[in-house]
Amino acid sequence: MAVAVNAGNQQQGKMGLQERFQYKLKQMQVPQEEILDLIGQLGIMFETGLNLASALEVLEKQSTGPMSQLVQDIREAVEDGKPLSQAMGEHPWAFNSVALALVRAGEMTGDLGSMLRKVSDFMERDIGTRKKVKGAMAYPAFMAFLATCVVIFLLINVFPKFAELFGDRAKLPGPTRFFLNLSDFIQAHGAWLFPAVIVGGVVGITVIRSKKGREIFDPIWLRVPAFGPLIKAIAISRAFHVLGVMLGAGLNVLEALRTAADVSGNHEYEKLWTQSRLDVEQGGDISASLMDNPLVPGTETAMVSLGERSGSLPDVLEKITKHHEKKVEGAIKAFVATIEPAMTIIMGAVVALIVSSLIMPMFNLSAALRD
Description:
This protein has 371 residues and is an all-alpha fold. The protein folds into 2 domains: 16-95, no CATH class; 125-371, Receptor-associated Protein, CATH 1.20.81.30. The protein is 83% helix and 0% strand. It contains 16 helices and no strands. Helix 3 packs across helix 4 (52-62), helix 8 packs antiparallel against helix 11 (227-248) and helix 8 (112-166) packs parallel to helix 16. The N and C termini lie far apart (56 Å).
């Protein structure tokens, strides 16, 4: 879903299926936590006076597997005369547009160590937010998996034992006939049904995350109760954080707005920041482009306007980011508080329906025997 709030979604939407698979495979082999550790150590070593190539060589020796290969590629590119930002840019699955822009700014200003620290701070907060979201999604995912397993167990192991006892299916209640037929279907076609469901799920996710799919589904996610407010809080927090960090680093406002669109994680917010960049190109203000837009609260727009007038926009954006980080935590709690009872009720209702479809014919059969 769109709650997958990383900048990689934007890039993956522009890739073919094979490229997207390779992209995700590399991300699985080298988690973002390891990338964060690499950036942090590189920044510390660079600030202590070690030259870039030597620092990368040290990090390469202490790394293993795919991570070692990544550092080696970057080191070799740097030794060939390429700037660090360009060497990192050859691995977009590992370094997002924010990291590359900040490193590039550090190279231009001669303050690379400080910029690497900013990249590390940004990634740390981003990873923390992502973990919170995944933690919130873990319970409903587990409940859905558990409910599915219970249903499949009942259909495969319980219903067949009652099929002969019930006799003529035409006289059975509708729910009982439905589940008996479903049980027969699963037993007859189970060998290919499970792979088909997996393939269908992969195809569905691929379609949803495609460019056209995001255009269709992203506005829908924003309207889903509990889930929509969570997406909004994350999208606003990420965008304002990116703007604050990049403007504070002295980067061009147009580049900052372009990057905010890239990392927004939702097509509607991507359009919002793209339009804001176009307005600024024509001489307008960021706050004017956000005015009366339901995607951004009016209080945040007013604060941005104040920051623009006072010349303290990066500081204002940092305060907005911290405020929205608290709103993200609140939205996560609200989502969990809504989804937990909902999943419990749904799971209970499904199991109750299946069990009642077994019990009702037994009552009818018992009554017929008494008669």
